[in-house]
Amino acid sequence: MIVMASDANHPYTKQQHSLITQPLNPKMGTSHLICLYYNGRIVVAQYGGHDGYPSYTGREIMDLLSDARYIRRLQANISLIRYRKSRSPGDYCDDDSGLQILDTIAYAREPVLHSFGLEFANDGGICEWSYVVDLDAEVLEVYCGVSGLGRMGVRPAMRGRLAEAGITQQVLKVSIPCIDLPGDKEELVEACKAGFGDVF
Fold first, then answer.
1. CA–CA separation, 164 vs 179, rounded Å?
2. 21 lies in a domain?
3. Is 55 a member of any domain?
């Protein structure tokens, strides 16, 4: 049996470890991408259509990665990922599981079907935030879509794992080792927010 992150009834969505610690409602239409980088390449690029700001999705990822055991689970289960064949451009948006992909992989016991949507990151006007969990270096990278920075008149240099993968419409704002996350969650959120006023 192959499970999908978007399947609310699959057996790995109701774990003792609760992924969501903040209220979900009301949802904000903030499109984003959740990526896993492993063995020198991006192996997961999961579309999410809601709540992509660092003050929500970023904080949730930080909470998860502050537990070294959770990182080990992700590393151990990468081999269970199976990629869905694309039927048409942009069909990865049919799977809006976003952040849930991390728990799906971390607690998987069977193959996980994944709609790989890395190309979404190159739509900097729609993909507002991207999060890359680098499982090789055990680092969290947070990116902002270039349209948001363009409104502020910023011309940033492209760097980070997304830039290495050929993505030109996401700009690395913050990179921090996972080992530092327990004490730096608020500091990291504030660094991501810098220059954006009160949009968080």
1. 23
2. no
3. yes
> Does residue 165 sit within a domain?
yes
What 76-81 contacts at long range (C-beta under 8 Å, 24+ apart), as own/partner pairs, is 77/105, 77/106, 77/108, 77/112, 78/36, 78/38, 78/39, 78/43, 78/105, 78/135, 80/105, 80/108, 80/110, 80/111, 80/112, 81/43, 81/44, 81/105, 81/111, 81/112, 81/114
Helix (H, G, I), strand (E, B) or coil at 183: helix
Q: Is the pTM of this model over 0.85?
A: no
Predicted pLDDT at 159: 85
End-to-end CA gap in the chain: 39
Domain boundaries, position 31? 27-193
- Residue 33 near residue 131 (C-beta atoms within 8 A): yes
pLDDT 10s digits, 159-194:
899 999 999 999 898 888 988 775 656 777 777 776
Q: Where are the beta strands (DSSP E) in 109-194?
A: 112-114, 129-134, 139-145, 170-177
**Would residue 171 count as lying in a domain?**
yes
User: Considering its fold, how many domains does the chain have in total?
Assistant: 1
Closest by Cα among 39, 57, 40 to 49:
57
What pLDDT, in 10s, does the model give residues 67-107? 999 999 999 999 999 998 877 666 777 777 899 999 999 99
Per-residue pLDDT, 72: 97
Q: What are phi and psi of 118, to 5 degrees?
A: -60, -30
